[in-house]
Amino acid sequence: MRSIIQFTVYKDKDYYVAEGVDIPVFTQGETLDETIQNIEEAMYLHLEGENLEELGFSDRPSTLVNLELTPHYAKP
Question: Is the residue at 73 inside a domain?
Fold first, then answer.
């Protein structure tokens, strides 16, 4: 039983994009704060009415957000 739902966040041209690792949820925001709020809302909507145990999660899973950074020396 998993107790963590993971997301990866990366910077696109104009937005931060969040992609669920454990669940098929994608969202974005102009700022990191907005993106985090959108992750919470998207997770709620996606999991609303679902039996978390049937999906392999504990009844109150945590959310882990990994931020991918592009090094300054990397060429676009």
Answer: no
Query: How many domains would you assign to the chain?
Result: 1
Residue 56 has pLDDT above 80, yes or no: yes
Structural domain for 63, as ranges: 2-68
Q: What is the pLDDT of residue 75?
A: 61
Residue 74 within any structural domain of the chain: no
Tokens 């704060």 — which residue? 33
CATH of residue 46: 3.30.160
Name the β-bridge partners of 6. 64
The DSSP string of 2-41 is EEEEEEEEEE-SSSEEEEESSS--EEEESSHHHHHHHHHH
Residue 75: DSSP 8-state = -
The residues pairing with 28 across neighbouring beta strands, listed in sequence order, are: 17
Cα–Cα dist 51/29, whole Å: 28
